Amino acid sequence: MDYLASLNPPQREAVERTEGPVMIIAGAGSGKTRVLTYRIAHLIHARKVDPFQILSLTFTNKAASEMKQRIEKLIGLDARNTWMGTFHSVFAKILRVEGQKLGYPSNFTIYDNDDSKSLIRSIVREMKLDDKVYKANTVLSRISGAKNRLISWETYLNDPYITADDEAAMKPKVGEIYKNYQKRLFRSGAMDFDDLLFNTNVLFRDHPDVLNKYQQRFRYVMVDEFQDTNLSQYLITKKLAAVHQNICVVGDDAQSIYAFRGADIQNILNYEKDYPDLFIVKLEQNYRSTKNIVETANSIIAKNKSQLQKNVWTQNDKGDLIELMKASSDNEEGRMVATTIFEEKNNKKLRNSDFAILYRTNSQSRSMEEALRKLGISYRIVGGLSFYQRREIKDLMGYFRYVVNQEDEEAFKRVINYPKRGIGASSVEKMMVAAYEHDIALWEVISNSSSFLSGRAANAVGDFCTMIRSFKIEAERKDAFEAATNIAKQSGLLRELYEDKTIEGLNRYENVQELLNAIKEYVDNPENEDKSLGAFLQEIALLTDEDQNKDSQDTVTLMTIHASKGLEFKYVFVVGMEEDLFPSQMMMQSREDLEEERRLFYVASTRAMEKLYLSYALTRYRYGRLLNCEPSRFLEEIDPAFVKVNKKISSALSSSFRDTESSQGFVGLKKPATRNTTAKVHTPSPDFKPSNTHNLTEGMKVEHPKFGFGLVKAIETEGVNRKAHIHFEHFGDKTLLLSFAKLRIV
Ligand code: ATP
Ligand code: MG
């Protein structure tokens, strides 16, 4: 096998030096991730290391699965058995097995940000504190900051100034909240995201036998994007590698962009102190981008004082100059970007997926989305309000969570009276207080509702309890899909959504169906051994924002710069290059902050392979007001030799947008076929009446009130459920449950 031949000499050295500590410090696009991938392949193939003994930690789960696929291509199926994933997903798995040693149930729930904030709000209320001073967001980020530095609530309470800043003085009760928050999480059998790492540290500290077991298991440890690890993550890797010392970390100090979340660049700078035998590899040849892009990026990062010296260069062509676009408003900026994509795509025969639009904050996607939609260009947003953050999805997931873990307080609050079953807020409050005051499990209170509540409320809670019990029995006996479908129906949630006939209601109903589809897919996937509802929940809880996208469609990618780390696209637009937006006003307390913003700009620019566009607007709506904007200082910092100003956007083209509201033709542009995100909601025929679908069979043509016309491809019967697989002209393939779908046989 000749995989080593496709590496340059320092890359090859990094791959072949498998024993002892290795640090690869290298510029963007120089093949760091590639080296890690090949190194794993090499360990398994040439050094005959058991794949189970290799642990690799990546920035997203998606990055891990891509890496696995590549390794599989290099050496075959053995690749599947390596341990690979984000810190959170890998150690959540380990805590499932070992968490009982810390007093957690093995089916512990993972709280997301919303759950955590809701819990903090309850605590602030109960402590009778001012919720304007103790805002959930701020309190949570302080607690998170403490956990990432392994400061427990006990330590925090003893020394509130441990964080050594002004905020500590202004919010003297944070320590107290932190304590209550942890106690409540523990009672709920739940961990938040930071706990997954914090508790792993506690586990390794207090249970040397467990630590030893994993030290033996993971003979080789590798970490990608090492510049963004926080102390908590850093110590985990250090402890794991303490025996064999076969640790390989890969990073670029110039791309450290998570200091605000506790990432500590000192982890790189001090690494030699931790490992005196450290072997350092520098990679300087960039394979990703054109000369113009590489040199532009170099000129950007050169302005930062604190950095390791690197000389990134490339043998690639010079390529196009960086193009700067100036727009009069944010909407015009969107139009310019969309038009440019449209033109470049046609002129150069590119695909949508060759383009990415990167921005500093999620809210900037709006003007981009509007413009792309008007030109019929399919796109997807990575991050933002993702599927699993939608209310109806969280509601149903709330049921799943509660069925799996009856102490999950946040799930309980979500489902106890939704759909409405006559259990008012005061009854809920009474039960929670009862559990707290008697120091008994919430489930015990609920199971004995008549002792705590009276009359109707007690009965309603009794019925709820019976229902949850039956779900629980099902969830234990059946696979996730069967259990979930039953819960969706029997809880009344599906019916509640079905009866809401507004467009939004239909959408929500569709989303729930989509969730059930996802569960089916999960159950059908042979790679998932554990097909229980609990296992599915864990998988979802660990999805990072960056993981949530569908690769199968050809779409332009929109995302924050933070989410774009490690990725590459032929054409990249960095939009909103304005003072106070980028660099962000909120992050400009010090020179260090400015340098982090500049690194962010470096990350953004180095995502581009062939062409980089930078744009800014002269006015922009922010915080509900129209603001005048100034071009970003970063634009002035770029060496002008690499930049040209775009004058090409013809006014005819931009003005054509104005009459597209009615989706009429475009001046000079042929409107491309619409799909998915761009497809219009179908208007049902005037005589639309759902048919009895009892006799529906393959090959029949049907009309759906929202998806329009389609062809039945297959009918499937599963238990009491009959489902139709239908191909809709404008919406592609859908699977609909016939007991709910409104279909007219045409
Ligand atoms: P980032 O800092 O953005 O994470 P990276 O250093 O991890 O970048 P990779 O993503 O591994 O870089 O590589 C960048 C691109 O260069 C990829 O498309 C990769 O396949 C290609 N590449 C890296 N090394 C070589 C090589 N020796 N020969 C050919 N292509 C290479
Ligand atoms: Mg990489």
Automatic annotation (TrEMBL):
The keyword Nucleus does not apply. ATP binds at A26, G27, A28, G29, S30, G31, K32, T33. The keyword Metal-binding does not apply. Its EC number is 5.6.2.4. InterPro entries: DExx_box_DNA_helicase_dom_sf, DNA_helicase_UvrD-like_C, DNA_helicase_UvrD/REP, P-loop_NTPase, UvrD-like_ATP-bd. GO terms for molecular function: exodeoxyribonuclease V activity. Residues 674-693 are annotated as: Disordered. Pfam families: PcrA_UvrD_tudor (PF21196), UvrD-helicase (PF00580), UvrD_C (PF13361). Residues 5-290 form the UvrD-like helicase ATP-binding domain. It catalyses: ATP + H2O = ADP + phosphate + H(+); Couples ATP hydrolysis with the unwinding of duplex DNA by translocating in the 3'-5' direction. Keywords: ATP-binding, DNA-binding, Helicase, Hydrolase, Isomerase, Nucleotide-binding. It is an enzyme of class 5 (isomerase). Residues 291-566 form the UvrD-like helicase C-terminal domain. PANTHER family: ATP-DEPENDENT DNA HELICASE SRS2, UVRD / RECB / PCRA DNA HELICASE FAMILY MEMBER. Belongs to the helicase family. UvrD subfamily. This is DNA 3'-5' helicase. It comes from Cyclobacterium jeungdonense. The lineage of its organism: Bacteria, Pseudomonadati, Bacteroidota, Cytophagia, Cytophagales.
